[in-house]
Amino acid sequence: MDLFSANNIIFFLLATIILVFGFLSVTTTKILRAATYLFFVLFAIAGLYLFLSYEFLAAVQLSVYAGGIVVLFVFAILLVKNLGEETEKVSFQKKLVGGIAAFAGVVVTLITAFNYGFILNETADEAVESVNMQAVGNALMGVEKYQYLLPFEASSILLLACIIGSVVVAQKNKEEKR
Amino acid sequence: MLELDKLVALIQTFLSDNIQIEWLVKLIEYVLIGVCFLALYAVLALILILLERKICAYFQCRLGPTRVGPWGLIQPIADMVKILLKEIIRIDKTDKILFKVAPFIVIMGSFCTFGALQFGKGVGGVDFNVGLFYMIAISSLGVVGILLAGWASNNKYTLIGAMRSGAQLVSYELSAGIALLTMVVLSGSLQLSDIIEGQAKAWYIFQAPIPALIAFVIYLIAGHAETNRGPFDLPEAESELTAGYHTEYSGIQFGFFYLAEYLNMFIIAAIATMVFLGGYQPFQINADWAEGFNNIMAYIPTWAWFFGKVFGLVLLSLWVRWTFPRLRIDQLLKLEWKILMPISLVNLLFMTVWVLIFD
After folding, report:
1. Which of A16, B48, B179, B290 is the most buried (most CB within 10 A)?
2. Distance from CA of A100 to the nearest CA of B (A)
3. What pLDDT score does A178 carry?
4. Residue A56 sits at the chain B interface (C-beta within 8 Å)
């Protein structure tokens, strides 16, 4: 396989963006900058999905994470934090625990990745068939094998409960103020 | 006749005949497409700016720009040169990185949406099988840039403008998205070329008149609110917030916000055209006696149909902008959450029933 094929160049470009901004987002001391770097990471991950011809997942990644979660983060920061305030200095103990957790995560990921036994696809350079939207819809709304109606409905009930819960919490605060 | 898809095919065969290396052909094609889209983006912005100024003048019984060129036609080019030459003012006590990044995020969201439009038969950038969903997803990225711009400027006005803008965009995105989903129920596809091809005989707004018309009106209102213009221009509100989130920007950095705003207006009109008004499909009457009429309509090139419809909707948007007074923030949120959102949800159900009965 050619090291400088277009596929490799695109992949390493995206991977570099993800790694660099991922590193920056945890090391920066300004909280809104961290959110912005996270936005770039999520955006580049959507690029990786597009690169795999998985457009549906890329669009979901963009709308849920980049467009939804990051906007929520930024909103929350703007509403809650004092402007321009820097994050607290992290104590050594926290750093140690965080480092160990991160290391354990890397080890687990590497072990799974190396034991998975990927099949090398010789025709990978050719255009990959993108996933049909009908197939995604059938998988989400069907009741047969490899179709996931029950988890889909369960998660929607969970979301509904969350929305009602947040409304209740918001109302209580209002009454206390009066 | 005057179709552009043959020109595209001609360029493609010319390149692949003359250059043997496959990846070089692809690279040249991609660069060409990118340059074409950038040029179109800029030219459309110039046209829209002139249109806005002329029509605003008409509504206010003025003449608008008249000095540069005949009827002031070259005015936007002079404006462009001016904005390119202007100094980009550096401001102390701003968050330097975020201040610089914010305009790029705004224009990136706008341009990525622009790239998925279908301008004519076989003329368009990307055509994903989730095209419409992709557009909804990526057009929502601009709000991040607006929030960052407002915060990074370190200014009360910009922050208030950004918060208003964020609240407005996040809320109106919902009913705009649901209105588009209503049409996806009718078309049965998310791919934009499929959606447009499905309207060859009759536009969707005529195929399911009642629910499609409701969805169309909701999409126009919500889309108009998403462009931060017209009666929904609270984020900028020049009389109370000087210029809202882009108060501190100057030169081409301000130009990016300006460009994105105008092109978002075009993009909203283009999405409405593609989903409700048949995109590049000509107007057809589905009856035997109208065959001659249909042939004449089909003779007009598809890109002319597309741009004609889009500019019609842009005119409607300008008309609204210069007619209605600005809403208050509570009226704005009430309109979305208590009126548009319930109507669009019920309308989605109505459309599903309609499709089950009539198809």
Report:
1. B179
2. 31
3. 52
4. yes
CB-nearest partner of B151 from A6, A32, A71: A32
Cβ–Cβ gap B129/A6 under 8 Å: no
Tell me, what amino acid is at B105?
A: I
Lowest mean pLDDT among A102-111, B59-68, B262-271: B59-68
Q: Which of 112-151 (A) contact B at CB < 8 A?
A: 130-133
Residue B265 scores a pLDDT above 80: yes
Contact between B175 and B336 (Cβ < 8 Å): yes
Q: Which helix (H) or strand (E) holds B46?
A: helix B22-59
Alpha-carbon span B343 to B211, nearest angstrom: 10
Give the one of B98, B105, B130 whose C-beta lies nearest to A59's C-beta. B130
Judge if A23 and A98 occupy the same domain. yes
Q: Which two tokens mark B98?
A: 């975020």
A112 and A147 together in one domain: no
One domain, residues A85 and A168:
no
**Domain count across chain A:** 2
* Mutant choice from B29, B94, B141, B159 vs A, greatest count of A C-beta within 10 A: B141
Is A67 in contact with B166 (Cβ distance < 8 A)?
no
Task: Report percent pLDDT > 90 for chain B.
Answer: 5
CA distances from A118 to A11, A112, B105 (A): 17, 11, 36
A125 and A137 belong to one structural domain: no
What average pLDDT does range B323-333 have in this prediction? 83
* Tens-place pLDDT, residues B230-245: 788 777 766 677 777 7
Query: CATH number, domain at A40?
Result: 1.20.120.1200
- The reply to whether A68 and A81 lie within a common domain is yes
Contact B167, A72 (CB under 8 A): no
> Is the domain of A89 the same as that of A43?
yes
> ipTM, 2 decimals?
0.81
For residues A42 and A106, membership in a common domain is answered with yes
Q: Which residues of B touch A (CB under 8 A)?
A: 23, 26, 95, 97-98, 101, 105, 128-130, 133-134, 136-138, 140-141, 143-144, 147-148, 151-152, 154, 159, 162-163, 166, 170, 189-191
Domain of residue A84: give its range. Answer: 6-131
For chain A, report the end-to-end CA distance as a whole number of angstroms: 70
Reduced to 3 states (helix: H, G, I; strand: E, B; else coil), residue A142 is coil
Domain ranges of chain B: 92-358
User: Residue A106's pLDDT band (boundaries 50, 70, 90)?
Assistant: very high
Q: Are residues A102 and A26 in the same domain?
A: yes
Chain A with chain B: Cβ pairs closer than 8 A: 87
- Residue A1 falls within a domain, yes or no? no
Residue A127's pLDDT is what?
A: 54
Question: Which of B184, B216, B215 shows the shortest CA–CA distance to B355?
Answer: B184
Q: Determine which of B29, B104, B148 to mutate to test the interface with A (most A C-beta atoms within 10 Å).
A: B148
Residues of chain A with Cβ-Cβ distance to B160 below 8 Å are none
